[in-house]
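We give the chain.
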Amino acid sequence: MRHMLRTFLYSFGLLTAFQANVLAQPKSHVFDQLVLSEDFYSEGACLADINADGHTDVVSGPYWYAGPEFRIRHAYAPERRFSIKGYSDHFFTFAEDFNNDGQVDLLTIPIPGLNSYWFENPGKPGVNWKKYLVLDDVGNESPTLTDLTGDGQTELVCCRGGTIGYASRDADDSTAPWKFTPISDNRGFGRFTHGLGVGDLNDDGRNDILERSGWWEQPEKQGSLFQFHSFPFAQSGGAQIFAYDFDGDGDNDVISSQNAHGFGLTWFERRGNSSDVAFIPHPILTDKPEDNLYGLSISQMHAVTLADVDGDGIKDVITGKRYWAHGGGDPGAQRLPVLYWFRTVRNVNGVEFQPRLISKRCGVGTQITVGDATGNGLDDILIGNKLGTFLLQHKTTAVTGKEFVDAVPAKAKALAHTPGTNHFASHVRETDPLTPSDEQKTFVLPQGFEIQLVASEPDIAKPMNMAFDRRGRLWVSSSSEYPIAAPADRKATDTINILEDTNGDGRADIIKTFADDLNIPMGLYPYKDGVVCFSIPNIWFLRDTDGDDRVDKREKLYGPFDTTRDTHGMCNAFTRGLDGWLYACHGFNNQSTVAGADGNEVVMHSGNTFRFKLDGSRIEHFTHGQVNPFGMAIDQNGDCFSADCHTKPISLLLRGGYHDSFGKPHDGLGYIPNVMEHLHGSTAIGGIALGEATNFPDVYRNSSFGGNVATSRINRNSLIRTGSTIKAQEEPDFLISGDPWFRPADLQVAPDGSLYVTDFYNRVIGHYEVKLDDPRRDRSRGRIWRIVYKGSDARRDHSPSAISSPTQSPVSLTTASLEQLIEQLDSRLKTKTDLTFEAIVQRFGKSAEANGRLNAQHTSARVRAASLWLLFRCDRLRADDVAKAIKDKSALVRTHTFRILAEMAEAPSDIEQWLATGLKDDDALTKRAAAMASASHNSDELIDALLDAYNASPKNDVHLRHAIRMALRNHLQSEIVFSRVASRDFPSSDVQLIGSLCMSLKTPTAGEFVAAHIEQLAGTDHDQLAKYIKFAVGYVTRDTISTLAQTALDRFGDDLDFQLTLLTAVKNGLSQRGVAHPESVRAWATVVAEKLLDINQSGNPPDDDVEPLSWTQIQYRDASSQVDSWTVSHTRKSADGMMATPLWSSFPRGERRTGIYRSAPFLLPDEFSFFLAGHDGFPDKPLQQKNYVEVRDALSREVLERWSPHRNDTAQQIKWKTRDVAGRQVFIELVDGNADSAYAWLAVGRFSVEALNPSHRSENRRKGAELAAAFKLDQFRNAIGKVALKTLTDPISVRVLAAALSQMTSHADARMNALAESTSIVGLNILQRREMVQALMNDQSAAVPALLLKAMLSASTTEQRRVAEVLASDSGGAALLVQLAEAGRLSARLLKYPQIEPKLLAAADDPLRKRITALTSRMPDESENLIELIASRRQDHSSGPGDRELGTKLFARACATCHQIAGLGKKVGPNLDGIGNRGLDRLVEDILAPNRNVDVAFRTSTIVTDQGRVLNGLIKRTEGARMVLVDSKGEEISVATDTINQNVLSNLSPMPANFGETLSEEQFRHLIAYLLSLRSS
């Protein structure tokens, strides 16, 4: 049979002769993955016999691993572990004897562009390896060490100084730097250039160099430049490029990844002869799985190599996904880090590359090394990357011919690997649910781990929280009600279940319902004869008094908690501390006020953590802030961590501290410093577990694990301590699911050290992304998983025998003796020790005193610390116990001792001495615990010790410093204590510290301290000083305020911006107290306002100055862009020789920032010029069309001209003869949309229109006007008015100046303020703005209604809304607002806006409310589609304006039946002469939503005749006894007046509501272009 198959395939040309021979004895090729390390040391690794023992060793990062076992590693270079967000010092490693001493040396290349060294092998252990410089700049991300020149010596091929070339060693001095020889001219090849390879492409026997854009032919004469042949081997930078004869036709083809940070792998078939070479691309992989026969698509193939894997004489391809190259910022970054080999198969159809999966959790780095590491004659594969170091050991197994053929992967269009794809992008998953067994198959875990199903539907519903009891049973709260609480009129369906695994296989074989009729239960804690849990709206103690595992008694402990606003998170993550408190998280949005039996009340507004006694006696606030904490864990040191949705997956909780919570204020000390600054691709976080409590390998010992319900993963971070400060370093995800429904909501470590995960299995996880009652929410499926480390000989970083196991057999916590239980406290398995500890307390209580005191001297620090807590919990801790414990040799014991002191309600007499000792402890964490204990025991005597501890603490130990500041704050809260302290003479460092604490004290003494030391505090940054002054002003006397004002004026008289900041701070501080401005402050404000307004001695602005135009920073088109990317730069020179050119520039604030800088409108002159510098993409790429300068029509927003940068750092002049567009009102946009890291900036200036050039005058005058208005400096009113009249073309400036005028009028009411707001309406002409400003200058409130009636004709809905919000502020404004709506000048729909309606109704009297009702009750509906269409049409026109001529014809055909322009058309609707002045926004609304703004004169009437005839139209006139209407088609209808029964005037326009929708997108653009051209002067 096998012979027949071989003969058949060979006869039809499907196999080569060699392949046919291989098939005669077919073998399967598999790879066993050996884990050498899961730490990130390198992006490349190599194989060599380093110690000359005949065994191949592995080199990765700074280590070499001794073969053949690879368990022992030795450092040859400085040891350093890297963050996966960063980069290694070892991108490439090559092994060779560089000094010919018989020992294998090592050459390492770091991140491109830096120094490369070779390390000399000393030949014996324990001796340092010397290093020697190879090259000071190794560029390109795929350099290679090979014999390029054919001289028998290897060269380092790379980029340097803009060229490609090679570095060769000094033949006479191996320690000398290598010599670089360029083979190309300078083409700008940079350090991060991608794509490089070496091979003979033209059959001349000499190696050529291949790169992204072509190949360089090596000449016959060495030393000459190579000849370049252009061909795009990669789209935007590949990796290693190979020349190899894939199709077997005798010439070398090429293979290259297309984008090392994107997608694509292509082989290029060579055709033609050596003098006429052509390459035909054949994609192997793209970004579309359907393009591959096997549904495969791999991103970031940053390393590629060739090897004959199957021994058929044809090289195969090995590649995979580089993991986390740019910290998750690349396309496909979240996809599985796969490693594949592609079997090269030649057949009648050409060449096929059959993918064979090697690993789902390995991937590649930047270098793949192939070699026989195991000595079995087969090529193994070595990978070093951010996942770790992996040796893929190659082995074969004999198979039958059929098995060989069957092993060929099945062809499929379906996606081969789903993780990280679009299947996980939607809040509502589009895939179908999987069975538990099928879901289990999708999980990817590190080597040696196994995931087991504990329980699933129908035995449990949607699991929420978990906890273990003393019998090792798992208690689970589950809900089918979530997210809508069960109503009071029916029984709730939620439960708490007890799960028990009696045979140790991981699966729960006994599942009992302990309690039902629960309402979205979450947090739970098994306690005594039942469980303490939350179920809406209370925390309950559910008891089983008869021992049948069913609740028979329910006791309310605390509540009710607020559940009216949300059910999101609620009270969850109940976690018992050694102190006896039960700690918990308070969920999202709700505002709970809860008290214990002692009356102590806790108020929590969203977020927060709290703790409570289990007997209902007391509840306390623990920390403030966060948004939706869901998950908590306490480590062996007593540090408490929470996981929070919307802020950070890991936060350190310090009692009484504050965390960020959607911008809510902190306590004045600042937020507790963050543990982590990164996220994990979402803010949907559920649960936290600590690796130190597991029995996992040591690499996970300092890890935290967190459920990510949005990405369907379990994330991992390393918790790295600097002193007492904890920082989370991102690590590769621990678990990756291929099922988008996987929702890990809670994580708990079991007593045996395994990790349990609740799977809230669901299509929908977003709480507000869809409606709460969306039927797509799954309410029946739920799973619980158990992740256990089984041990694996394939892990060389962890011995199979090193799996943590107790030193003695586990004992029953319900029956064991006290001595047995105490011995069980000596374990790293914290869940077990916590349960054991509570068992001792509950079972033995005070009778355990003798054992507790005896074991306070135990050899185990864990036992000693637990014994101290046991004595404390039993109220048997004595002073001599503490005195001994604070001197314990173990920092763990000392730390817990001070945590105990923090919990003491009554302070022992020696506590000050103990705390002072702790504040000097050598261990930073002990010191932090002592500081937190000091915060609970206030004393004058500790202030100096705390100050000394703070000054001695390293600045990077931010958690220690914050704890000390909290303690000092608590001590100084006493006015008596602070008064005594404030009288002392402090060094400057202490003044700075105490000054910062004053901000949190908010007492008169604190204010006086700040004022008294303002000179010393003035050395801080300006923002902080402004806060100090604002704070002090809120508490000190008027005399002190005057002193502060004079100090600020003397110290910062030349810094107007800072003085303005200080004055604002003073004003706010006085306003909070309700105190009038002292004369000294008014005098100070007068001086600053005069300078800002730049007025002359007569009090007027200079007549001959050019008033600068304002500029506005706006967001670029993508939502991630910044709005502060532009600033003034003076570092560039101009092409005409001008140095330090003042330019608007996007360079200083970072090239990755994007944003648009838009000028105020101005009149376009006949000639317009400016200078432009900058770039729009890398020099070797085409312009990206993302960075440019453009001129737009101010009303239509039509782009009149656009210029791209000349790719020059020197500003070049741009000149433009404006011709037919001269005289238009236009604005300039400086657009920086290129977010690249380099060559992505603009700098623009020296405009021929002087008012556009960088100047602070306009901004200063706006600030001066605002200052004058704020302090009621009426003497500047005339000057402000005159400045406003000079800026009428600048809507931004005139609005600010007008607002200042309105506040200075005698009628500073809503109407005057609304008039000021209206000056910024884009469609206004200069005359209208002048009339408005003059009315404000002259205090003419009577003119306001007429001015607003006219202005609203040009206002868009957005502009109308701004005016309406102002008008609704008082009764007079409210009446005018309704009047405008009744007149059809302003959309009545605005009266219902949420920001307007409440204010309007509050300001209106009963008659006005009736008018409002009459207006709003008859409003036609506006669909969401219409609103979207309006936005879309605006954007369409801005992107590409239409043709005016075509618009003219369209108007004549479709609009002239009702409207007249220049005397042409019918006079049915409004005359449209000059309508272009309304601007784009208003015109689009008028066409698409004609019923928004309908003048009274043009509202339709509905007429019903006595014969029942109903007519609708616009009443035009009455002719004798007949009334004439005009319908929507422009045709007249005559009706006898005596036949009319009803005549109802509506709010509707006669224009068809769907008129705009009848126009195509193109027709609409043409019509708008025509209408915008109709402008009146």
Observations:
- Residues 1-18 have pLDDT under 50 and may be disordered.
- The radius of gyration is 39 Å.
- Residues 1056-1073 form the longest helix (18 residues).
- Residues 182 and 1503 are 90 Å apart (CA to CA).
